[in-house]
Amino acid sequence: MNKKMQCPNTYLLSWLALSDLSFGFIAETNIYLLVNGAKGRLYGTYMFHTLHSILILTLLSIERYLAILKPFYYKAKVTKSLVAKLLWIILAFTAVVTAPGYYLLGNSYNMLEVCAKSKLDEIATIGYLAALLVISITVPGIVMCSCYTRIIKHVWFSDEAKNAKNKALLRSRWKLTKIFIAATIVFAVSWSPSFGKLSAKSFRCSERFVLYEAIYILLALLGSTANPIMYSFRCSGFRQAVKELFSKKCCRKHRINSRKSMLNSVTGRRPRCDQVRQSDVILLSVRKA
Q: What PANTHER family would the database entry show (predicted)?
């Protein structure tokens, strides 16, 4: 395991990237079905990956809040193992929350068929989507805004921040502020339209809703693509860890060999192959004698 991945923030970012990548596959599948005129969508799976990515984003905002405003607590308590446990809890929670969606909407979702269901089934479906909206958008949005607002307030309006005049520090603050504001806006714009199914029945049960579907899937896809890119610009450790993670094996072998040769030059030890050659020379000289 890459040592840089032991950092909780880098570990979280890697999970966010993997979650957004898996969401991208599902979103592209739904776009393909939509473009080809298919009636069904992978809606159950779509909502599972949507909620999973959103909850990881929320956990990331809490992690940043603790790292910046509670540094001593963060260093003492927040570890990679704790983050890993929380990520598995998020995965299990996501599976439980989105499980009813597979029954109410199915994984071959068709809005026109849902609109043709009985009134009781329609009420259950709309009620479930409303609850999912609160869990997926409202609560995470409040948590993210609260964490990022407090961070920005701390880096700009605390007593230490007011007295600081270092240009490098000011640039770092501006960069941090821009990323957090951009992350909040991207979250709201990219994920909120996915719950347009709670709109008026005259709209969501019409053929015009197909165009709306294409728009909200594309927005969510762009948002999931933007998240790892934005955070990787801020976290240099994550960029370096990804480079090392995807480096070729031959490059790794080259680095290992170069380290061994450097170590041998320092310690005075000879490589094993050189020792074998020396023994062969001695053996040949004995035979000749």
A: TRACE AMINE-ASSOCIATED RECEPTOR 13C-LIKE, TRACE AMINE-ASSOCIATED RECEPTOR 19N-RELATED
